Amino acid sequence: MTPSVIGIDLGTTNSLAAYVRDGKPRVVRDATGAALVPSALCFPGDGSVLVGTPAKARALADPEHTIFSVKRLMGRTLAELAKELPLIPHQIIERDAEAGRKVLHVEVGGREYTPEELSAMILREVRQRAGGATKAVITVPAYFDDAQRQATRDAGRIAGLDVLRIVNEPTAAALAYGLDRRKQGLVAVYDLGGGTFDCSILRLADGVFQVLATNGDTRLGGDDFDRALMAVVARDLGVDLSARDAQLLQHLRDQAERVKIRLSALPEAEFAIDLPDRAMKYRRRFTRDELETLIAPEIDRTLARCRSALKDAGVTVGEIDEVVLVGGATRVPLVRRRVEELFGRKPHTELNPDEVVALGAAVQADILTGGRKDMLLLDVVPLSLGIETLGGVVDKLIYRNSAVPARARTRYTTAVDNQTAVEINVYQGERELAEDCRPLGKFKLAGIPPMPAQFAQVDVTFLVDANGLLTVSAAEQRSGTSMKVTVQPAHGLSEEEIERLVLESVDCAHADFQARLLIELRNKAEGELRHTEKGLAAAGDRIPAEGRQAIEQAIAAVRAAQSGADPQPLRAALDGLAAATRPLAEEMMNAVVSAALKGQSPDSLSLDSPGVES
Ligand code: AMP
Q1: Domain at 385-492: CATH architecture
Q2: pTM of the model as a whole
Q3: CA distance 375 to 529
């Protein structure tokens, strides 16, 4: 049976899906047992796209056509990416779109793609592995802002998924550990992935989760440990890491990650580069101590974020009851030691840190689709939301860490006589001045009848829904003029662009259709087989032996076709079963009719027609 609802951890480095069966979350694995789909894409130039492991495998030989860490680009502007640009071996362009929006594009394999499209390709792969599930919960770092959440949701839609909810990764992790079963307590979730860091403080009370505070850095993770090693080697080699040398960068990154991972288990590991065509041969032994010295500042930064989260949550470190570790980079022994030191208790590491978030997302998906009704999830607004007022000051309507859904209203008036329109500029951020916050969008409430200054009463309402998406509405009370907009981030794709991308992926639509057909036929086959077996047990001895044999053969054919990946043979086998079971169905029907005519109770007989198509 294929799950129709899944939880997806769309990671910087790896992505994976999980689902709930018989009340238990499980990760989706491929035929080889692998759960992780590397978040890597390769465009070999012949029009094809490689996703996941085959893309990662091509990275070294074909770095110009391979792309990693798309999550870092989601919902960001070119200016915000300045720090990363030297390390991204691809051309990143910002193009102007209509309505003053800007859209980021990545040039790879001679074509331009938006980060949303690229993430959608990864999501599509994950989705296919899960048998073409149609509904999903997708997780994001708790610190993701509105634009980044929106970009993730858009990627899901482009991949043909009905995105039930965007959920914070730490919340999902706590769910995976079943910490909701605690009567009450405080949980700290420390999540250090490849490219993002989060620390969240959750409060549990009678099965209800509340995220008290989240703090993090969307540009800090295990990849930075790789970079610290790369920087040492680049110095030794006298190479410039900011030069656009995709092949060399990829070699260095690959070796650095290998060395880092080995040092989680061993005291020493060798960094080796062999590039005969460049006459470059390099060997260096790194000890675990050396790595720890290199990465200590990054780990300190994560701990400072944890302290801020505790402060925002208004709790002391001693009050924390449980600590959960999430993300591949928490396998680094120094990370575990320092986290244990900070919180004064051993963190949970029983579940695979790479799978925890997807497992929790599956639990959340199950809750949302009615599998579990016993739990409520509260989340918080990650950054304050407000409106620019006179003098460029941001008037905050909803404060950071308010529980969602959140609603706030405030009243403004007009500044000059006969002012017929008010411009509303929406910002996100903690700073006082608009120029230091992030613009989320602007709109104009027009059609206000001319009135003296200060006479109009404009009520502005902010509503943040359960997904953290903001709707702003404004109404002038005296005239009744009103309008409402879902704030489209000033950056990213428009509704039309998403629609176009959804329509454009005709190939994927065909594949999706095939996948859905296969699932439906498999479910149908289960039902038909069950009915046929019931029919054979009830009336099999009343039909000729050849008839029984034909049915047995048809059953075997359905079973064989059921495990195949092509819907057509299964459809043919089901047609065969329908034809073979017709005599049995007629026999049962006759028995029911004659029993009824004789006035007997037909209780022991069933009118279920085995195998006959309805
Ligand atoms: P995630 O984003 O959670 O998939 O985490 C990926 C990060 O974890 C990457 O930076 C990996 O290099 C890192 N990672 C995975 N396994 C290990 C390990 N055994 N030791 C250290 N880092 C690891």
Answers
A1: Sandwich (2.60)
A2: 0.65
A3: 37
Domain ranges for the chain: 5-221+295-378, 222-294, 385-492, 509-597
- Do the Cβ atoms of 339 and 323 come closer than 8 Å? yes
Average pLDDT over residues 24-44: 92
From the CB of 194, is ligand 1 less than 6 Å away?
A: yes
Is 332 touching ligand 1 by the criterion CB < 6 Å?
A: yes
Cα(415) to centroid(ligand 1), Å: 55
pLDDT at 373 over 60: no
Query: Which atom of ligand 1 is closest in space to residue 192's alpha carbon?
Result: 3
Give strand pairing partners of 26.
Answer: 19
Please state, in angstroms and rounded to a whole number, the distance separating the CA atoms of residues 390 and 412.
Answer: 11
196/142 Cα distance (integer angstroms): 10
Closest residue by Cα to atom 16, ligand 1, is 328
- What are phi and psi for residue 426, nearest 5 degrees? -100, 130
User: Rg (Cα) of the chain, in Å, rounded?
Assistant: 29
30-42: average pLDDT: 92
CA 212 to CA 219: how far, in whole Å? 22
Atom of ligand 1 at shortest distance to CA of 357? 3
The CATH code of domain 222-294 reads 3.90.640.10
> Is the beta carbon of 161 within 6 A of some atom in ligand 1?
no
Q: Is pLDDT at 504 greater than 70 in this prediction?
A: no
260 lines ligand 1 (CB under 6 A): yes
- pLDDT 10s digits, 295-348: 999 999 999 999 999 998 899 999 999 999 999 999 999 999 999 999 999 999
Q: 509-597 belongs to which CATH class?
A: mainly alpha
- Do 168 and 380 form a contact (C-beta atoms < 8 A)? no
Q: What is the set of active-site residues? A: 9, 71, 169, 191
253 lines ligand 1 (CB under 6 A): no
**Which phi and psi angles does 441 have, rounded to 5°?**
165, 165
Per-residue pLDDT at 503: 61
Ligand 1 proximity of 154 Cβ (cutoff 6 Å): no
Tell me: the pLDDT tens digits for 126-175? 999 998 899 999 999 877 877 888 899 999 999 999 998 888 888 899 98
Measuring from atom 1 of ligand 1, which residue has the nearest CA? 193
Which of 258, 264, 295, 356, when mutated, tests ligand 1's pocket best, judged by the most ligand atoms within 8 Å of its CB? 264
Fold adopted by 5-221+295-378: Nucleotidyltransferase; domain 5 (3.30.420)
Backbone φ, ψ for residue 104 (5° rounding): -85, 140
